[in-house]
Structures are given as structure tokens and as C-alpha cells.
Specification:
- It comes from Nonomuraea monospora.
- Pfam families: MFS_1.
- α13 crosses α19 and α13 packs antiparallel against α20.
- It contains 21 helices and no strands.
- The N and C termini lie close together (about 5 Å).
- It has about 425 residues and is mainly α.
- It has a single domain, classed as Growth Hormone, Chain: A (Up-down Bundle).
- The radius of gyration is 21 Å and the shape is globular.
- It is about 80% helix and about 0% strand.
């Protein structure tokens, strides 16, 4: 295995913006229990959450368009340019939510503002994932790519932790009435301001060697759908391998707090604290698993996730629904997140390693965004629909079924750990003896 050093400046630069992107993305879901009543008329709590969850899902359906536009932009204009643009869009969307008027003031116009903001977020995140995944993978030498690219989910989780941490602070310093009235706007203001800082930081990133090499060769076909169609098998592979992972990820992260509160009956504060502690440990596991994949390959981790999620979701979620205290909820949540780590720690690098440089960002962005729109973005809505229909356990089987489909892909796909990402890397490998 290569002993090359990790380029920490590139890893940190690519990750910190990703953290703000996903802070803004997830904070909508974590604060929905407080602002749902501000944008919809009186009704039962589950119905209000269904409305806000539907708007959450709308953002996911914008992600394929964002994946296409910004993936193409990243392949034609560079990874750095795409990373800067995505964080700008995210800042604007967070600001829109922060100033959105309530139902009491303007009727459903406030909900319309939420929809517009989520559309912008979906556009941004649709390109952010691929730009970040591609940048982190290309900026790191072979033998360290799994470790370095795992920081994408470190940063994603860190963004969610910041949001949850801010929620805990607000819950302990503000009354419930104040949070429902205006306190929920604070995290969106913080997100908009943080994105402005990251915009400056990302402007100082260096472009990757792989992209510079491709740009010097030719711009013909870079980032086009026609070029992507030349890799149809890989694109379909990304959709299939993402299916089970994205449903499981959103089940044990964004939906978990609501599930512990609405179904298990834990206080909102306890449910939030469980999520915070579990996600912190989950975040720390990502580099360990990513580094392990550099040694043993990507497929063993993906297969472990597929089996664990397929067989473990139903008993885990059933047990979580009956949990009565912080300790039990934390242990069960951690088991689920440890299983999910087999997917999250390496899914970015696996997808980037499937495509050549001229279409790598688009190849990661578009099929991944499609899979997230169909499965990840609807996970929370599907879960609440099952609950509202009185058959909540049906959602657990749905998650297991998605994992089973992805498991078939993991068992049959090729190993990607040792692929060369550029012609220069390939030439170097051919000139030097293999290092183990």
C-alpha cells in the first residue's frame, strides 16, 4: 500500500464547505418540529410534519437537475469553481428560510418561500456532493483515497452535529414558545453567515492535478450527457449501490430524532441528545473505515453494510420504538450507525473511481442525485406516511428491501481501490514496482 502523505490542506478546504452545505440542509429537518406550525394551519402534529417533510423531499427532486448542471460545470470549469458556486447557492437558500413570513402573516406564501429555498438547496447539494467527492478523491494519492474521501461524511455529519448542538443550546436557553415563535430562525441565519466565510476559503483552493491534465488535453465532450452515456453501466451502478445506503443513512440520522420523539415517546430534548452523541461517534468512525478500505478494498465494507442493514433494520427500529431511556436509545442508534458506516465512509470514493476524469463529476452527481431523489429524499416522508396509516413497521421492511437490492450490486461489482484516476498516475504506476 502507498505510504504517500494525505494533503490535509485540500481535505480540510474541501470538507469545511461541505460541512456548511450539510448544516443548512439538515437543520431544516432537525428544526421542523418547531417551525411546522408557523407555515401551516392548525391540525394534528403528524399532519404538520408530513407537510414539512414533503417540502424537505422537494429539495431532493431538485438534486438531479443540480447534479446535471453543477456536475457539468465541475467537469468543464473545474472542481474549485463548482465548490465555490454551490456554497453561494446554499447561503442564499438559508437566508430565504431565515426571513420567510409565517402562515398567520401571509397565508401559504410563507410555505411557498420555503419551497423556493428548498429548491435552491436541492440545486446546490446536487452539485456539492459530486464536486466534493471528486475533489477529495482526485487531490489524494492512491493508497490514501479511501481515508481522505471519508472526510466528506465527517464534514456532513459535523454539519449536522453543529445544527443539533445549536438546537440543544436553544432548547436549554429559550422557552418552547420562543422557539416556536422565532428561535427556529437563528440556525438559518448562522448558516447563511457561515457560508459567506466558506466562500472566501474555497476561493483559495488549488485545482486538482487530474482535472488540470484533462483540461490541457481537450475540452471536447467534458461534462456532457453524451460522454456520460458512454458509461451507462457505471451510472446505473451508482444508482443501485446508492439506493440502500441513502435510505439507511437518512433513517438513522435525520428521521431518528422524530422517531424517538413521536414513536418512542422520548422528550424532544432527550431524542436530540441521543442523536447528537450517536452522530459524534459515527463521525469519528468514518476515517477509520475509510482507511481500512485502503487496505482491504471497498467491496468488503459495502457487503458488510448490505448484510447488516438488510437483516438488522427491522429488529433495531422495532427495539428503538419501545426504548424508554437515553442509554438504551443511544446503544441501539449506534448499532445502526455502525452498520451504515460501511456505506458512508467509502461511497464517495467508490463512485469517483468508477469514471474517467472528463466525466467524473457529472458521472457521480447525476445518478447519485437521481437515487437520492427517489429513495433518500422520500425516506422521511415514506416513514411518516406509514406511521399516519397505522402500519409504521412497514417502513422498516422498506429499508431492508432497499438494502437487499444494493447488496446484490455490492456482491457483483468490481473492486475500485487500485484504479488510476489520471494518465499521469497510470504512467507512474507502470514505471514503478507495485508496493504492498
Amino acid at each position: 500500500m502507498s505510504k504517500a502523505r494525505v494533503p490535509w490542506k485540500a481535505v480540510i478546504g474541501g470538507s469545511i464547505g461541505n460541512m456548511v452545505e450539510w448544516y443548512d440542509w439538515f437543520v431544516y429537518s432537525s428544526f421542523a418540529v418547531y417551525f411546522a406550525a408557523s407555515f401551516f394551519p392548525e391540525g394534528n402534529d403528524t399532519a404538520k410534519l408530513l407537510n414539512t417533510a414533503a417540502i424537505f423531499a422537494v429539495g431532493f427532486f431538485m438534486r438531479p437537475l443540480g447534479g446535471w448542471l453543477l456536475g457539468r460545470y465541475a467537469d468543464r470549469k473545474g472542481r474549485k469553481a463548482a465548490l465555490t458556486l454551490t456554497v453561494t447557492l446554499m447561503s442564499a437558500s438559508a437566508l430565504l428560510i431565515a426571513v420567510a413570513p409565517t402562515y398567520e402573516a401571509v397565508g401559504y406564501f410563507g410555505a411557498l418561500v420555503l419551497v423556493v429555498a428548498r429548491l435552491l438547496q436541492g440545486l446546490s447539494v446536487g452539485g456539492e456532493y459530486a464536486a466534493s467527492a471528486t475533489y477529495l478523491t482526485e487531490a489524494t494519492p492512491r493508497g490514501r483515497r479511501g481515508f481522505a474521501s471519508s472526510f466528506q461524511y465527517v464534514s456532513m455529519t459535523a454539519g449536522q452535529l453543529v445544527g443539533l448542538g445549536l438546537q440543544i443550546i436553544l432548547q436549554n436557553t429559550m422557552s418552547t414558545e420562543a422557539l416556536n415563535s422565532y428561535g427556529w430562525r437563528i440556525p438559518f441565519i448562522v448558516g447563511a453567515a457561515a457560508a459567506a466565510v466558506v466562500f472566501y476559503l474555497r476561493r483559495n483552493l488549488l485545482e486538482t492535478e487530474a482535472y488540470d491534465e484533462e483540461e490541457r488535453e481537450s475540452d471536447k465532450g467534458r461534462g456532457t450527457i453524451k460522454a456520460l452515456l458512454g458509461h451507462k453501466k457505471e451510472a446505473l451502478l451508482v444508482i443501485a449501490l446508492t439506493m440502500g445506503g441513502t435510505v439507511a443513512y437518512y433513517t438513522y440520522t435525520t428521521y431518528l430524532t422524530k422517531y424517538l420523539s413521536n414513536s418512542a415517546g422520548l422528550p424532544k430534548e432527550t431524542a436530540t441528545l441521543v442523536s447528537f452523541c450517536a452522530l459524534f461517534i459515527f463521525m469519528c468512525l468514518q476515517p477509520l473505515a475509510g482507511g481500512l478500505s485502503d487496505r482491504i478494498g471497498r467491496r468488503p465494507l459495502l457487503i458488510t453494510f448490505g448484510i447488516g442493514s438488510m437483516l438488522g433494520t427491522v429488529p433495531l427500529m422495532t427495539a428503538l420504538g419501545g426504548v424508554q431511556g437515553f442509554g438504551g436509545a443511544l446503544v441501539l442508534s449506534l448499532i445502526g450507525l455502525i452498520i451504515v458506516t460501511g456505506y458512508t465512509s467509502i461511497n464517495a470514493v467508490v463512485k469517483a473511481e468508477l469514471f474517467p476524469t472528463n466525466v467524473r463529476a457529472l458521472g457521480v452527481a447525476l445518478p447519485y442525485a437521481i437515487a437520492n431523489a427517489l429513495f433518500g429524499g422520500t425516506a422521511e416522508y415514506v416513514a411518516l406516511w406509514f406511521k399516519d396509516s397505522g402500519i409504521e413497521s412497514g417502513f422498516f421492511w422498506y429499508v431492508s428491501g432497499c438494502a437487499a437490492v444494493s447488496l446484490i450490486v455490492y456482491l457483483t461489482m468490481r473492486e475500485t481501490r487500485d484504479v488510476a484516476l489520471s494518465r499521469t498516475e497510470q504512467a507512474t504506476r507502470e514505471a514503478l514496482p507495485t508496493r504492498v
